[in-house]
Amino acid sequence: MDDFVWRALLAGAAVVLMSGVLGVFLLWRRMAYFGDTLSHSALLGVAIGLMSGTSLNVWIMLVCVLVALLMLYVQHNPVLGSDTLLGIIGHSALAVGTVALTFLPEVRVDLMAYLFGDILAVSMTDIVLTWVLAGVVVGVMAWIWRPLLSLSVHAELAQVEGVNTWRISAVYMLLVALMVAVAMKVIGVLLLTSLLIIPAATARRFASTPEMMALLAILAGVLALLGGMLLSLQLDTPTGPSIVVVASALFILVQLVRPSGT
Amino acid sequence: MPNTFLAKLEHISLGFGQRVILHDVGFEVYPQSILTLIGPNGAGKSTLLKVLLGLQQADTGKIWRMPGLRVGYMPQKFHLDRLLPLTVERFIGLRLPRHDREAVRQSAEETGVIGLLGQPVQSLSGGEWQRVLLARALLGKPHLLVLDEPGQGVDVTGLSDLYQLINRLKQQHGYGVLMVSHDLHLVMAATDQVLCLNGHICCSGQPEAVSRHPEYLRLFGDWRTAGLGVYTHHHDHQHDMHGCVIPHKDNSHG
């Protein structure tokens, strides 16, 4: 196999590892919209980075973290809090980012690469960055797993029982923001949420514990990655969407299978 | 009796926008004593619990909690998302920072749900679920149990068992209990104090006294003459603060 295939698989593996661990909570907490708003906003980071001629990664992360903090604030202020507002933030950022990119005559921007990902073009630096972040995400998630699970079940109950729900929530949302920033290269801003949601939903069918569901979500993500890569290389289809196609097919397939335990 | 209370609220007022939810409400919760909040829907009962628990900020008033007070909270009935696979044992165990199998079993034993520990939470009936919630509240050696409509979704035969259980737990462990209830006739038999809330405190005291109080009869009707107390209230709350006859300061400790 060629080098670029290995690089793609390495980067992809780190991304599905993160999306499996983070995605299950996105499902349990019914926060799918959160993934969308964040990933759509990432394009604004790309535009700022290209326009200022500085590091893209830094700007994408910065924008994602800022949007996550904004959303955290919105979540805790019910007067403002609504899916509508979050939809406005995400789509505005996406639109502004796209428009801004077209005003960059000196840079040839491959918009498709940002919208749908370009996993075959990841560099060694990307891989290292992605794996470092994957390590951070898995480590921190293991650390906050129990309180985060408790607040996902019932936030007020968890709070009365001594969980600092605000802090734990903030840490989780920041992790998702960082994941979005690095996963964008692999899967693109438009389909990023699907990588968080679909493997986790697939895993539910066979999981009897929360931890098992996360592990199975990672497994489903890996299968989608391998299948998507194969599909993309064989049929010369765009890789990001191919991975999502396989993930969806896996989800549908699993629904047809009779569950063993639960 | 004074100064031994677990928690005390004084002159609590709270509104959302123009709407007054609570007006000048105060009470104390004592160990080994059950205080039941009754009142029509929208009377501010759950809000009042949340103020005590620190989940909701009051606009004015004072909240005092015994230093080091451990609270077991049973929120209003809720549905756990089907997407979250969780057994009853895990659910109860989440109360503690680390899973303690033995403590979970003890707690489940007390509320009679030990046989359900391996079940997925989503498979429970209404009555089972409430007992599981109660078992979780008991974990962690609480001083005070705060129960928000423990009888919700429980069938009639299960109800009186549940209130007896709460009463027994109070006697065995000396818990202070603060609960919201709609099951008037059953609660009256198993509570030490009743506080009738309708934005303000309409009346309070021992159950016998409260059930004869004109303000109570106006709200709930006379269940003794109506046979079994079916929960109906004839009062559409108009925030008529002057209709409040009895001040909350204690006509009860006679």
What does this structure look like?
The complex is a heterodimer of chains A (262) and B (254). Chain A has 262 residues and is mainly alpha-helical. Chain A has one domain: ABC transporter involved in vitamin B12 uptake, BtuC. Chain A has eleven helices and no strands. Chain A is globular, with a radius of gyration of 18 Å. The mean pLDDT of chain A is 90. With 254 residues, chain B is of the alpha/beta class. Chain B has helices at residues 45-53, 88-93, 101-111, 126-138, 156-173, 184-189, 207-211, 214-220; strands at 7-16, 19-29, 33-38, 60-65, 71-74, 144-148, 176-180, 193-198, 200-205. Chain A binds chain B through residues 27-28, 30, 146, 149-150, 152-154, 156-162, 201, 204, 207-210, 212-213, 262, and chain B through 50, 53-55, 71, 73, 75, 78, 80-81, 83-87, 90-91, 94-95, 97-98, 120, 136, 140, 146.
What does this entry show, briefly?
The complex is a heterodimer of chains A (262) and B (254). Chain A has helices at residues 3-28, 32-52, 56-75, 83-102, 111-116, 124-153, 155-160, 165-187, 192-204, 210-235, 239-256.
Supply the CATH superfamily name of chain A: ABC transporter involved in vitamin B12 uptake, BtuC
Total helices of chain A: the number is 11
What share of the residues of chain B does DSSP label as strand, in percent? 15-25%
Q: CA-to-CA gap between the ends of chain B?
A: 12 Å
Number of helices of chain B: 8
At the fold tier of CATH, the topology name of chain A is: ABC transporter involved in vitamin B12 uptake, BtuC
**Topology, number of strands of chain B:** 9
Gyration radius of chain A (Cα, Å) is 18 Å
Oligomer: heterodimer
- The residue-averaged pLDDT of chain B reads 84
Which percent band covers the strand fraction of chain A?
A: under 5%
Number of strands of chain A: 0
CA-based gyration radius of chain B = 18 Å
Globular, elongated, flat, extended or rod-shaped: what is the shape of chain A? globular
Q: How would you spell out the order of helices and strands of chain B?
A: EEEHEEHHHEHEHEEHH
Which regions of chain B are unreliable across 5 or more consecutive residues at pLDDT < 50? 226-254
**Which structural class do you get from the secondary structure elements of chain B?**
alpha/beta
First-last Cα distance of chain A: 41 Å
The helix fraction of chain A, in percent, is: over 70%
Query: Spatial order of the strands in the main sheet of chain B?
Result: 5-6-7-3-8-9
